[in-house]
Every structure is written in structure tokens, then in C-alpha cells.
Design brief:
Rossmann fold; 13 helices; 13% strand; binds adenosine-5'-triphosphate; binds magnesium ion
């Protein structure tokens, strides 16, 4: 794990250097002056420019939401990108570890919200499924703030909470993502009692079941610090991948998150970083198993 800290230190130094170098570049303001109006049109002029600005704000938010979705599924929308290539490298390393130990279920965890767990889980499932004849599943176990369905554009009729509550079967909840071909068990709606469901016997049975049916199952989890859910998930999985946001995750938080889990199950860390040798409109990030 010393390598993770060394990488974090380097990333922090690079970030500071970048921030210093870019201090003079303030983004341009989105200035929307009202067009000149004649006397006759004065009453309408009071709200029309506002309506135009509001519409553009909504359009910009929609465009940004779409771009964000694409960042989270980069391996699907830009399979030739540097980021997708990094995820393929991770896949190869995981496959190589799997030849030495049973590795059907892998929990993707991280200390804090926004570290990039969902991005890592979605892209790893996608690139792993690109192999020939591989049976891969992706499970959204972030019952509090599920995102996998929206990132993949799925509309689940039922999902994990219903399976755990005994209201649906695994078969009913599975959604197939064609091309590259993997199965998703998403969350339809956040339940009122996520911790109870995560810690239930039904969850243990569910994970055993998916691990038996699939060659590899990637499990997206909630942030590990502050909630018991991720720790429980990590105990139930064969392996754990720790996502570290290079420019964001404090070293102490990484330590605390690692203290919560059985370190022998930690396969490595994904250093999630915005910097990459090549950039594109969809954004790039690198992931490394250390
Ligand atoms: N390397 C990166 N470069 C740029 N943006 C990134 C990178 N990794 C993730 N993001 C963005 O950061 C946000 C959080 O990513 P993601 O949803 O994968 O994190 P998370 O750990 O699952 O968060 P949450 O705690 O909300 O579940 C998303 O908007 C995603 O597009
Ligand atoms: Mg997430």
C-alpha cells in the first residue's frame, strides 16, 4: 500500500503545480445581456431575456448531466480512449489474480462519496464483458444513492431492494446490457431501511447466488466511512478494490477505510485521476492497480 501513498503524494504535488500555473485563467462568465427593446415591446422585455437565460441554463445542465453519464461509462462510449485502455489493463491484472484464488465477487469500495466507485465498477464490468464467452454481472449495492441504472440508461421494473425483501427473484431483476453483454442488478428505488437490507441474511444468500451464477460480479458500494454498509459488503465478497481519488482522497481516510476491511482481501487500489496523456471531450481518467 506504500505505493498508493507515494502516488497520492505525487498527484497532490502535480495538482498544486497545476493550480499555481492556472491561477490567472478564470473561466469566462456566461453573460446574457438583455437585447435592446422598443417602447412597444417593453413589458415583454422584462421576462423574455430571463426565459432565454433560464432555458440555456436548463440546456447546459442537461448537456453536463449527459457528459457526466458518458464519463462514468467511458469504456462503452469511447472504447479506444486512454481511460478504457486503463480499465482493460486492470481487467487483465484481476484475471491474473483470479488464476491464483477464487475471485467471483469483487466489491468496489472507497472512503468517501464521489471517489469514483461507480465509474470503476461500471467500466470494469464493461471491459471484462468484452472478453469472449464471459458471464459478468454488475450489482448496484449503493441502496442509498444508486446510480448504475441511470448511467446505463436502464429503467428497472424491480431491483436489489425487492430481491432482498423477498418480493422479486434474481431472474426478474436482471437487466441485460447487450454489447458488450453483461447483466445488471440495479436499484429501482431506494428503500427506507438500506442498512438492515445490506446486513440481512438475504443479502448473504443473494451474493452467494450471483457468485455461483457468474464468472465475475462487480459490486458497487456506498462510501465506506461513516456507514456500516460497505464494510458488510466487503466481508461478503471474495476481493476488494479500493478506489482512491488522486487529487481528493486524504491519506488518513484511505487508512481508515482499509482498517474497516480484511486487508488480505484487498486486491489493490485504483488510483482515479483526471490527468492522462490524452484528453477528449468525454474526459479521461486513469486507473491503476497498485
Ligand atoms: N477521473 C475522473 N475524472 C473526472 N471526473 C471523474 C473521474 N472519476 C469520477 N469522476 C466524476 O466524479 C463523479 C463521481 O464519480 P462516481 O459516481 O463514479 O463516484 P462514486 O464514488 O460512485 O460517488 P457516490 O459516492 O456518489 O456513489 C461523477 O460525476 C464522475 O463523472
Ligand atoms: Mg457511486
Amino acid at each position: 500500500m506504500a505505493k498508493i501513498y507515494e502516488a497520492l503524494r505525487r498527484a497532490e504535488a502535480e495538482r498544486k503545480q497545476r493550480a499555481g500555473g492556472e491561477s490567472g485563467s478564470t473561466p469566462a462568465l456566461d453573460w446574457d445581456p438583455a437585447p435592446e427593446q422598443s417602447e412597444a415591446s417593453a413589458p415583454r422585455a422584462r421576462w423574455r431575456p430571463f426565459a432565454g437565460r433560464r432555458r440555456r441554463q436548463v440546456e447546459a445542465a442537461t448537456t453536463e448531466a449527459y457528459a457526466d453519464m458518458n464519463r462514468c461509462r467511458i469504456a462503452l462510449v469511447q472504447p479506444d480512449s486512454y481511460a478504457a485502455e486503463q480499465f482493460r489493463t486492470l481487467r487483465t491484472r484481476i484475471d491474473s489474480l483470479a488464476s491464483q484464488r477464487p475471485l467471483a465477487s469483487i466489491a468496489v469500495m472507497s472512503p468517501n462519496p464521489g471517489d469514483g466507485r461507480t465509474t470503476a465498477a461500471v467500466n470494469l464490468a464493461a471491459v471484462t464483458a468484452m472478453g469472449v464467452d464471459r458471464k459478468i454481472a454488475l450489482v448496484d449495492c449503493n441502496l442509498r444513492s444508486p446510480r448504475i441504472a441511470s448511467i446505463l440508461g436502464l429503467e428497472p421494473r424491480t431491483g436489489l431492494a425487492e430481491i432482498l425483501a423477498g418480493e422479486a427473484s434474481l431472474e426478474e431483476a436482471v437487466i441485460r446490457v447487450e454489447d458488450p453483454g453483461f447483466d445488471v442488478i440495479a436499484v429501482r428505488q431506494s428503500p427506507p431501511n438500506p442498512s438492515e437490507l445490506i446486513g440481512s441474511e438475504a443479502m448473504r444468500r443473494f451474493l452467494e447466488d450471483v457468485a455461483q451464477r457468474y464468472e465475475r460480479v462487480f459490486i458497487d458500494t456506498p462510501a465506506a466511512l461513516g456507514l456500516p454498509d460497505a464494510r458488510v459488503m466487503c466481508e461478503l465478497c471474495d476481493g476488494i478494490l479500493v478506489v482512491v481519488r488522486a487529487d481528493q482522497t486524504p491519506r488518513d481516510d484511505v487508512e481508515m477505510a482499509l482498517d474497516l476491511v480484511d486487508r488480505r482481501r484487498v486486491l489493490g487500489a485504483i488510483l482515479n485521476s483526471e490527468s492522462s496523456p490524452e484528453r477528449s471531450h468525454a474526459g479521461n481518467r486513469g486507473g491503476r492497480l497498485r
